[in-house]
Structures are given as C-alpha cells and as structure tokens.
Amino acid sequence: MNADVFLVGSGQTRFGEWWDKSLPALIEEAVSAAITDAGITALDIDAIVIGNMIGQQISGQGQLGAMTSALLPHRPPALRVEAACASGSVAVHTACALLESKRAETVLVVGAEKMTDAENTAIASALMGAGDSERDAPAGLTFPGIFGLIASRYMHDYGLTREELSLVSSRHHEHAKANPYAQFRSSVSPESVSSSAPVADPLRLLDCSPISDGAAAIILSRTRKSPLRLAASQLATDALSLAERPTITSFAATRDAFCRACEEAEIDRKEIAHLELHDCFSIAALINLEDMQFADPGQGIGIYRDGLQEMSVNLSGGLKGCGHPVGATGVKQIRDLAKQLKASKQRFGAAHNFGGAGATCCVHILEHACEP
Amino acid sequence: MITPPSLHRHLRSWHERMERGTISAVTTVRHPPAGFPDEPRIIGLITLDGGSSVIGRIAGISPRIGDRVVPRMSMERVNEQKLRAYDVVYEVAAPAALQEDPFVFEGYILALTGPSGVGKSTVSKVLSSALSGIVTRVPILTTREPKDGDDGEYLYVTREEFIRLEDAGALAASTRIPSVSEDRRYGYRTEDICKIWNEGRVPLVVTEMHLLQGLARSFGRRSILSCGLLPPGTSRRAMLSQLLHRLRTRGRDSEQSIADRVRNASSDLDFFSHRKELFDHLLVNDDIDAVIATLKGHVLRTQEDTR
Questions:
Q1: What is the pTM of this model?
Q2: In chain B, % of residues over pLDDT 90
Q3: Helix, strand, or coil here: A145?
Q4: Which residues contact A214 (CB under 8 A, 6 or more apart)?
Q5: What is each CA distance from B50 to A251, B15, B21, B178, in whole angstroms?
Q6: Chain B contact set for A198 (CB, 8 A)
Q7: pLDDT tier at A239 (50, 70, 90 boundaries)?
Q8: Are the C-beta atoms of B105 and B87 separated by less than 8 Å?
Q9: Cα B212 to Cα B228: distance, rounded to the nearest angstrom
Q10: I need a surface site. Which of B95, B136, B211, B222 has the fewest CB within 10 A?
Q11: Contacts of residue B52 in chain A, CB cutoff 8 Å?
C-alpha cells in the first residue's frame, strides 16, 4: 500500500429476502449505519465507490454511483464497479487506489445487490454474465453447473465423498447462528445437505449460497486514524471459461492475489487469525483453502473435518450462512473481519472474494493494532 | 444471454468442436436456462483430441469422467420465433477402461514424465536393465514412422487402427502431440499393462501430461508411482535452452520437429507446477547415475510397501 488506509466504520443491512425494500433503500440503510458507526458526518466523505453486479438487468437500474451520491447532501464524486461476485472487493480495491493516489481522503465503499425482485430464470441468466457468454452459455450451462463440473472433477481426482463435502455447508450454518446479520441462523445437519434436492450433480441445493438482497458499507480514510488498517489489497484475474484453463480444481487468480497480498502486508500466512473466504458453492471453500496453501491439494476437507486451532474460517457464516447478495459480499467480509479482530484482539485477518469461477479474485488483509 | 447473432457466431464455429475427445468433468444441470428443454441436461467439459477443451452437452446415460466421446450435430432447441438451433453434442463412445471401480488396486505403474529431450527414454532403458527382475517397459503405440534412434520400445500402427482401438476403449491412455508437420498419436494399451501385472511385474511407462492424466483416469491416481524428470537449470529459460541443446545433439529430429517439441516442452514445464498432485517425486536429470539410483530407491521402497 502506498498510503496508510484506515477502516473507520462499517454498516450493513441484514442479508435476506427484502421484498419491501428497494435497491436504493438497502443502500441508504447500510450507508447510514456506516456513517453512524464511524462517528463522522456525511460531509466528511469525499468520494464513493459502489460495487454491484446485476442492478442493470434485474432492477433496470444503472448509474448506481450517481444514485448513491444523491443520498448525501453534498453529492460527492461516485462511481460503480463490476466484477461479478467480486464487485464488492473490487470496489474496496478501487477506493484504495483513490486514497493511495491522494485523490480522496475519506471514501465510502458500498456493496449492494437486489436479487429477489426477479424470477429464478432471470436471475440465473443474469448471473451467467460472470461466465463466458460465447463459450459456456450456448451449451445451456448455468452457474451451479460450472461448479458442478468443478466438483465432479475434484471428487474424481481426490476421492472426496458426498458425505465429506456436506460438512462444509453445515459448518458455515453453525457459524451463522451467532451472526445477527445472517440470512440463515439455523443449524443444518450434514445429512440434510446430502439429501437436499440435486441442483447440478454432484452439488445439491444446500451446497449453493442463496439468492439474497442486502447492502454493506465501509468507510476508508487516510487522514482519520483507527486501530484497523488495510495492510494489503490485491487483485488478480484468470480466463473466464473453464475450457481455457489448465486445471479446474485450482484457481490461479486466488493463488496470485493471496500470495501477493501476503507479500504486500509482509506477513506469513500463518499469522492470519481470521479468514473470510468465498464459499459461493461448498466445493469452492475447499479449493480456496488449498489455493491459499492452508491445505495441500485435495486435503481442504481436513480443515472442516478436524478444525483448525490457529485460524477461524468463515466465522460470520460465509456466503452460505449469511446469504450472498453478490455485490455486497466483498464489502461485508471486511466488516466481519473488523468485528472478529476487535473481539479476539488478534492482529491479522484476510478476506478472499472472487467473481465467476475464480476469474477475478481480490484479497484484502486487515491489520488490527491492538493497543492504538 | 444467448441472442440470435451470438448463437449464429457459436454455430459458425461448429467445425472447431466437431472432434473426438474425453470427458474431463461432467454435471447434470437440473434447471437449464430459459429457452432450453425443461429437463435435466448433462453438460461436460470435454478435452478434445487436438488438445483444446470445450463445454458441450453429452448425449448418453450416466457418462463418467474418462469416457471417450464422439461429436454429432443435434437439434438442441427451438426459439420463440420457431427457429431450430443445432449444436455439436458429444455421444459416449466407450466407457473408460477398468472404470467399474477405479479403486481396485491391481498393482502399480511406474511413470516417468517430462518434456521432450529431458532423457525419459534413456532413463527408462537404463532403469529397466538395472531393475530387470522387477520392471518391464510397456510398448508405446504410435502412429509415427519408425526412426533410426528407435530401440524396440514402439509398436507402429496406422492412424485408423489407433482411432479404432481408442474408440473401442482398448487404450488406457492416449495423446496427440500438437505438431505443425504431422499428426502424431501415442498411447498405451490396457491389455499390455494388465499382462505385465499378471506376470507379477511393474509396468514402466514414459509419459507426458495427457498420457499421465489418462493413466490416472483409467487406473486411479493411487496406482501410479509418478516421477517427473526436469531438465537442469535454475530458470525456465535455462531449462528450455538445455532441452533445445539436447534435442539438437541427439540428431533424431528435423529442425521443424525440434521447434514443435520445444513449444510443447514449455507447456509440459507448466504442467509440473499446475498439477503437482499428479507427481510423487520430481527429479532433475543432470546426472543419469544419480537419477537411476534415486529411482531405484523409490521402486524398491514401493515394492516393500505393497508387499
């Protein structure tokens, strides 16, 4: 990082099915909560970055930058960024660029998505925008289908069983019980994951993160100090289509972004106390742990079977437990890390957020100075 | 989103996908996107024999990873304007060998993998005589012409015969080496490997990335003692120039063929880092005696373990 970027406040709506709240209403709720939390006034914000994926297709709403800016009295400069499910973290990355380049002193970062307004086929088609429209879509593939292909290959190569895979969603649901902002706050047994309806074999309904509405906001500043500092913000990409990759059981963008983030923060991966990773589908959680080298290839399930003493994984409940309003997730992960670091008095947390099948990956490392 | 012009672009490139291949991942999409028949749709990631991959529908009941597929045109859907959209679909030709239970442990295969020119054949020859009581070299099926340097390790077949064996499911692994000058195919017959196991010996194969993956699909990864051979050199550039040097001095290949081989070697080097899990041991071939001694150690230890 070319400047100290502090996290001074955050807020979010509870994720869920908010039929009575519009996209701007969700954004306003998260922004107000973040401003209150930061103890600043709206006038202190001098730029806004909002991450959103499908507002245009589902709500017929573009220009989210201007729309969000109009919520504040002085209408600061604002822009919207998109990188499928990584839109939120890419918004944070963009905000860091504004701060590091001294374009802005205090930036409001918002991630927001309104998904329950449309019927399932429309949502499925909008989400396929994260894949390769010329190579993947014509065969009739859906996003769960893409991860179904990945899971089939993973199980074939490493002998992972259906019963083992079910531990992943079950664990995330268990964590979500303690999170008041999570969409699902109930236990789900591994058996019920295994016996839920098939969606894209071998994946079943409870392997998939849900369709959710929600918004999250954080305020980043280089002039207002806080014990929480962004130690790294790294973005990496890969080919959109699975057909163009040498392997589908590992994501190069995750490996690159995470490795560079650790270098930027000058830490070893073992120093990370809390990890929020992108579990859009259960199989992705295992691949991510392996790509970040917390487990050897094929051994990611060990962390769910035996647990990890030194590091928590998706303590918030992850995408499965919290819900996954696509553009909001990357921002919400950083807010969750901040809460976890404050509670545990630990020093480092990492947020891993990817878009599509790992075609864009953004990793942030948050550092908590325990005695400011 | 599939629009009429995008569909047209997709169909215009049908000939690129009209090729035989092997299923490398498969899923059944229970809720296909709008516009497709509302019934479970089997979709696969297919590795075509030419080396590229495509995503396409698979026609057939419960296809599995490793199955051979052949392409055909099929009417896939009728759009709102009643236009019929055709596309390439893949039909299962032959299920992969020994697929009934991939975890039956028949014995193990010793595989030497490495880029062209790293010295696989030499190591294989020396090792098979050093361990003549244990290992037997598996004959390599090839469609290429016999050459002077060949030393009885090849079985020469025509391209037609090769494809017939492949489609009949008789090959445990096969590959097509991308080459500008000719269409060269290599493979191993399942029966040759099983025969060596039946004699109580260890089959020794020389592979590259597709053959190694094919063997892992056919017999299971656990059945392979997989050793990678790297050229000496601290950087990728140094390794490639070392290979170029060796290919030139052995004088077996034309300049055109050497250019092809070096190009393929570059992706072979990537394979070592991308698919680490496919290798048990990586060795640098800078001293043949040391490499042979190390490999001998690995084989003898594995013999102990499996006994």
A1: 0.73
A2: 24
A3: helix
A4: A12, A13, A14, A15, A16, A18, A26, A112, A113, A183, A323, A325, A328, A332
A5: 24, 13, 8, 7
A6: 28, 30
A7: very high
A8: no
A9: 10
A10: B222
A11: 243
Alpha helices in B137-208, H assignment, sequence order? 159-167, 190-198
- Fold classification of B101-305 (topology level): Rossmann fold (3.40.50)
Q: What is the mean pLDDT of residues A45-69?
A: 96
Asked if the Cβ–Cβ distance from A159 to B275 is below 8 Å, we say no
Provide, as residue numbers in chain A, all residues whose Cβ is less than 8 Å from the Cβ of B217: 156
In a domain, A364, yes or no: no
Is A186 part of a structural domain of the chain?
no
Residue A305 lies in a domain: no
Structural domains in chain A (count): 1
Predicted pLDDT at B98: 44
Chain A residues lying within 8 Å of B9, measured CB to CB: 134
**Does A138 sit within 8 Å of B2, measured CB to CB?**
yes
Residue A203 bridge partners (DSSP): A200
Determine the residue among B12, B45, B77 to mutate to test chain A binding: the one whose Cβ has the most chain A Cβ atoms within 10 Å.
Answer: B45
Pick A140's closest partner by Cβ from B36, B53, B276: B36
- Check if A280 is active-site: no
**Can you give the residue range of the structural domain that contains A12?**
6-118+212-221
Model confidence band, residue A360 (pLDDT cutoffs 50, 70, 90):
very high
Mean of pLDDT values over A251-271: 97
Position A168 scores a pLDDT of: 97
Task: Give the model's pLDDT for residue B178.
Answer: 67
Q: What pLDDT does residue B216 have? A: 84
Banded pLDDT at A218 (limits 50, 70, 90): very high
For the cut 80, the answer to whether the pLDDT of residue B305 exceeds it is: no
**Alpha carbon of B150: minimum distance to chain A alpha carbons (Å):** 31
Tell me which residues of chain B, numbers 116 to 175, contact chain A at a CB-CB cutoff of 8 Å.
Answer: none
Name the residue of chain A whose CA is nearest to B214's CA: A157
ipTM tops the 0.90 cut? yes
A134 with B9: Cβ contact below 8 A: yes
| Tens of pLDDT, residues B184-197 | 889 999 999 989 98
Of the given ranges (A65-69, A336-340, B13-17), which has the lowest mean pLDDT?
B13-17
Q: Give yes or no for B280 touching A (CB within 8 A).
A: no
- Yes or no, beta carbons of A134 and B10 under 8 Å apart: yes
Question: The domain that contains A20 carries what CATH number?
Answer: 3.40.47.10
Residue B154 identity: Y
Q: pLDDT-derived band of residue B115, with 50, 70 and 90 as boundaries? A: confident
| Averaged pLDDT score across all residues of chain B | 85
Distance from the B58 Cα atom to the nearest Cα atom in chain A, whole angstroms: 10
Find the DSSP H helices in A70-188. Answer: 87-100, 120-127, 143-158, 162-176
d(CA A85, CA A128): 11
B48-75 pLDDT, tens digit per residue, is 988 899 999 999 878 999 988 999 888 8
Pairing of strands B41-48, A360-368: unpaired
Say if A174 falls within a structural domain.
no
Task: Determine, for residues A137 and B54 on separate chains, whether the beta-carbon distance falls below 8 Å.
Answer: no
* Residues in B 63-82 with any Cβ partner in A closer than 8 A: 65, 76
CATH topology of domain B17-97: OB fold (Dihydrolipoamide Acetyltransferase, E2P) (2.40.50)
Q: Is the torsion defined by CA of A189, A192, A194, A196 positive or negative?
A: negative
